[in-house]
Amino acid sequence: MKPLRELKQGGLLSVVLPSYNEEASIPRAAERITELLTAADIPFELLFVDDGSKDGSWAAIQTQAARFPQVRGVRFSRNFGKEAAIFAGLAQARGDCAAVMDCDLQHPPEKLEEMYRLWQQGYEVIEGIKVSRGKESPLHAFAAHRFYDILSRVTGVDMSRASDFKLLDRKAVDTLVALREKNAFFRALSSWIGFSTATVEFEVQPRVAGESKWSVMSLVRYAVTNIAAFSTAPLQIVTLLGSVVFLASVVLGLHSLWQKFTGHALEGFTTVILLQLLIGSILMICLGIIGYYIAKIYEEIKDRPRYILAEHCGGNDESASGKTV
């Protein structure tokens, strides 16, 4: 790719690593990324965000902060979710650009140098694009493909190979952090904000330690929450179902009138019961969809913070305990 403008010289890179029960992965991530970026002569900081872990993740972050001067950490008062951890890391990042990647190193840290060089060329959003999803169960792979296919259709943004592995210019970071919505979907919003964009392909690597924290149910909740947060398409389903039922009612009504006037009317007890069950089920589904959106509106109106910071370590700033955002 040709540079968009004169190459940027230097520039601090902040690497944000959301962490939840990653006690074994944190030391390996700190060592590996520090080794690679030091060898590439890239000024950097590593920012671990402990998303209310129940294991020794925070102690591991504190240990790495004492070991490496480039390592900082912040800890949530409780678990607020990966999206909140990403936005907390971006808000705390001091760099001229910031990369987001998984703490388990399934996002290959070797790609950080390539992303950084593209940023130096003038690109403001560098997207990590999956070439393969690595080893995962057939059910997980099928569900993920369907989720991103649906999300791509309802948002108009190609999410088929999207990931949280991205590098953002300070301008893009500040834009994302300024967004006030509570149910923010980083993977889609980083594309939605625009800016000059480049892509870097990568293969999902095996976890360096531990097991995935995502169960099937948590993935389903994640999918539903993010579709609702980024699209009103499910509400259009209500209109579609209402139209289908209305057309079916017109057809059945005309058929019943024809039978009545021709003297062929029959007792339709079973048909009536089935229609009531069908229409009742559709009404309940529609009310459920509308109710879900009302619940999200309620959450936004309350204007509670996305997360609460309990502690920090590393760096020279004053304590961030109790800070809300």
From TrEMBL:
Any one GO MF annotation of this record: glycosyltransferase activity
Top-level taxon in the UniProt lineage: Bacteria
Membrane topology: Multi-pass membrane protein
Gene Ontology CC terms, in alphabetical order: plasma membrane
UniProt KW Transmembrane keyword: yes
Pfam families: Glycos_transf_2
Alphabetized InterPro entries for the sequence: Glyco_trans_2-like, Glycosyltransferase_2, Nucleotide-diphossugar_trans
Domain Glycosyltransferase 2-like: 14-138
Keyword Glycoprotein applies: no
SUPFAM superfamilies: Nucleotide-diphospho-sugar transferases (SSF53448)
Localisation: Membrane
CDD domains (alphabetical): DPM1_like_bac (cd04187)
Keywords from the UniProt entry: Glycosyltransferase, Membrane, Transferase, Transmembrane, Transmembrane helix
Residues passing through the membrane, by range: 227-252, 272-295
UniProt protein name: Glycosyltransferase family 2 protein
